Fold each of these.
Amino acid sequence: MDKVRFGIVGIGKMGSIHAIKFVAGLVKGAVLTAVCDISEERRDWAKKNLKNVEIYENYNEMLDSGLIDAVVIAVPHYLHPIMATDALNKGLHTLIEKPAGVYTSAIRELNALAKSKDNLTFGIMYNQRTNPLYRYAKELVDAGRIGELKRINWIITDWYRPQAYYNQGGWRGTWEGEGGGCLINQCPHQLDLFQWLGGMPTKIRGYCQIGKNRDITVENDVTAYMEYANGATGIFITSTHDFPGTNRLEIDGDKGKLVIEGGKLVFTELDVSEKEFNATNTKFMPSIPSKKIVKKISKIKELALQVVGQHTAIFRNFTNNILFGEKLIAPGEEGINGLTISNAIHLSHWKNDVVELPIDESAFEEELAKRIQEEKALNNK
Ligand SMILES: NC(=O)c1ccc[n+]([C@@H]2O[C@H](COP(=O)([O-])OP(=O)(O)OC[C@H]3O[C@@H](n4cnc5c(N)ncnc54)[C@H](O)[C@@H]3O)[C@@H](O)[C@H]2O)c1
């Protein structure tokens, strides 16, 4: 194979941007040969804007067409694992949009299937893993330069979404349509990076506020406290009704501290670990000798990377994995980690208690089903 032939299921807001990237030739080694959407309006858009691309209404017909080697799944969340399962079973390389799905039992089954298809590439669109600042943070963590984790805190409240956003209707901002609010829609990237850089917690206590300052049935304000096996702690705060919001990640380790905010990473690297320093120090209020490393990306570059660069980088990497075996930046199997944290926060809120990982998946699904029923009852009033 010298070019990977791609199909996209779902050419709504995100899928259509993806399609244009392929058609513009941004994904070397790949060609878009088919797209699919149940919406006539979106298929009409495809007719006008995508030349030499077959258009389908039924995704299984596209998967069976023989026209594609790989599929990108860019539809509402509940459908991700269902369509990915069909695609892998039909021998297609599969790239799902975030989040991996809505509940983890479906993703465990999907991961087991993907593992059994070792000739097929399975990826997830965690495009923020290509952000140079998070990549550098990952390098520091993996090289042990931050040392043993003490604390990881992320405040990500700059997803301002007014009532008009939720009034668009459709699947967004509902339990039935997307399986939650800001945790499942806005935050999958940060929850993934949170575990990519800090590892998985063992216990979570989540507090969610439902419809804070907004007329919606899902959470739009969340504070979660986490504990890790080594005694480290984590805080994750997110909301969609604050303006201006904050986006600040802090990771404290035994050997240093890393802060990412406003397109800037500051790493303060201690000359000796705090443990070593403390073992011999005799002063009451000393400071530990350290050096600072600063990396920046401009607002314009960050925006350009987000709009064009990050998704393209994931598509190129996914294509190169198929063609040349390049290491995947975002393996599909890792989608379950961020989703586990998201599910655990919801479950903890619903049970008004601390949740240990792995979570009780059936308890999560039962509680989710209750929320869907309550939402339906409200809509029928
Ligand atoms: N990675 C990112 O940066 C990013 C950004 C935005 C959205 N997303 C994700 O992309 C996905 C799609 O979001 P969106 O904003 O494009 O939503 P959207 O509603 O604009 O588009 C979804 C499309 O899927 C189509 N669809 C629904 N069911 C279908 C089916 N059974 N078969 C074929 N098509 C079907 C709809 O008609 C619609 O056109 C979501 O998972 C979302 O979380 C990712």
Amino acid sequence: MTSRIIATGPDGYFVARDLESRARSPEPGGPSLTGDTRPNTLQITAATPSAPGVGAAPRFREYADPDERSWLRCRVLGFLDTTYFDDVWPTRPAPAPGLSLVAVSGDDVVAICDASLAEHGATIDTVVVHPDHRRTGLAGALLDELVRRLKARGITRLDAWTRDDPGTRAWYEASGFEVGYRYLHVYVTGVDEMADAVQAQVGLEPRSGFFHADTQDPGVEADLRRRFRRVHACHRFVRDL
Ligand SMILES: CC(C)(COP(=O)(O)OP(=O)(O)OC[C@H]1O[C@@H](n2cnc3c(N)ncnc32)[C@H](O)[C@@H]1OP(=O)(O)O)[C@@H](O)C(=O)NCCC(=O)NCCS
């Protein structure tokens, strides 16, 4: 599903056309979506009564400093059912030069899309949607706006590094990205695994560690997966703009 950004209002919010059509044609059993007649807003009523911002209208704009707490909550909740479940930030790090977009429902951030910029390309640092707001096109709408802004700056390539979570892979593939490279993230936990992975230095007993294994050899990968319980493939997804 690809959304198209159709307007940026004077207040800095922008709107996605395909979200409007979803809003007018809710899927049976899915969230109840109701289109708003105003030009730059969209009414969405989430299916889960406890969802943040229930009944409010998810809208799209740039991140602002007062969003920080809500942004962190959205990020951690969105990562909970993924291999990034323990990648928790108590504060939002100062971003690299780039673009930071959010979808907000009321005062709550419900989707995030951050990208950092280099001379000829950009990298998605974070894309995450609050679990109660998934499959309603929010990530697609934020990506469309990100791509529009990158193209306006003459950037021709967008990439992202992410692990092997099936839903995330499916979203990147549905969004026009292809896998360009792959390596392994190896988490080493417990005395036995650590003894297998590293040698202790004076006075230090290693208890856990995180390693990159830059291998394309299936035999090496199989051996690492046999020796260590938590191994993730990390993929570089690439899309020409
Ligand atoms: C990946 C993620 C951002 C997608 O957000 P989303 O707003 O739910 O995605 P969209 O509604 O834009 O999905 C667009 C299309 O992508 C595909 N897609 C998205 N999520 C999918 C899933 N879980 N399973 C299969 N396909 C999926 C579908 O083709 C979908 O279209 P459809 O709903 O019409 O079938 C969201 O699931 C998420 O936050 N995941 C956890 C965070 C994460 O791992 N981020 C990457 C590391 S930074």
